Description:
The chain is α/β, with parallel strands linked by helices. It has helices spanning 46-59, 74-80, 97-100, 124-127, 134-137, 139-147, 175-178, 189-200, 244-258, 282-286, 327-337, 349-354; strands at 27-33, 65-69, 86-89, 103-106, 112-118, 151-157, 164-165, 170-174, 204-208, 225-229, 232-237, 268-273, 311-312, 316-321, 342-347, 363-366. Strand 14 (316-321), helix 11 and strand 15 form a beta-alpha-beta unit. The mean pLDDT is 96.
Amino acid sequence: MTPTMTQPLSSTPRADGFRMPGEFEPHAGCWMMWPERPDNWRLDAGPAQEAFAAVAEAIHPSDPVTMAVSPAQFSNARARLSPGIRVVEIASDDAWMRDIGPTFVIDAKGRRRAVDWRFNAWGGDFNGLYTPWDRDDAVAARVAELEGVERYRAPFVLEGGAIHVDGEGTAFTTEECLLSPGRNPGLSKAEIEYLLKDYLGVETVIWIPRGVHEDETTGHVDNLLHVCAPGLVALTWTEDRDDPQYERSAEALAVLETARDAKGRRLEIVRLPAPGPLYMSASEAAGIAAATTGMARGGGQRLAASYANFYIGTGRVVFPLLDPATDGVARHILQDLFPTREIVGVPGREILLGGGNIHCITQQVPATPAPA
Length: 372
Ligand code: KQY
């Protein structure tokens, strides 16, 4: 039977010759999702909507942005975004397009397809952040349909923020996240690695032990590091040995320093200073509606702040402004890492209060190469 948009393909990207390209490869566009959930975004999500709009406007000159939005928020989002930003209605449970959107894969014939991961709110009934999550789980299929691409439905739980790739056969992830009991308790590390190879089209998986301290995703790799080019990784770093983040970043550095990628290369690792440490204020916490689920919020809570949580657009890198003491250093390092791209800082604190940052709320659509 010929697959339709609503029926996933029964093969895998690897079997069909598809790979996930590096984020630094050219893009055809970028997807985002409009925030509105009051138990995650303070003050009925007004400040978060302003922040998301600023991210969309910063990315749009580089990669055309589509903002998905619930029917109830359509008029509000439309009014707050430039006319060139496409706004489409898709229902969701929250706004983390990196995690609920599809991961796009491409092949040498110039074709693009979508991988639709199973989503369970970062831990399902074990330690998920909210329930239900069925609308989030349905987002990737809708995005694939609107992009007009065929889709693979992966047979395991994963979020886009749990992986990075170099586009040349290497994936990066964390054990803390992918081996967490709330995701795929029936799968061994070897089985998960095999599935990553099948669905990302990679040959090598580099396992980092843990992600960022107090990250409520249970250690997403995209908050800890970013792959800036094949063989080049930016890693969140602190020099403060008393900070719990020190041990986590040092462990990651040790793995990265000894790793070889799929091409047999050693990695160059650039340290990105961690901001802060940053904490939620009592007044910020007071503006968040009481959670009925796993997202307890309180003043004094440590925030999982990281400059590695940036978006690499075709012509621009968009990074979160988090701390006046370190924003300038981060910008300088990013400019060195991406000499041909404009580096654009956007206020990131409101996104951080929700549990992530710019990488977590964006999902690139890779450009397709001319057929070989
Ligand atoms: O990818 C992410 N960082 C998502 C975080 C979810 C937090 C929900 N409050």
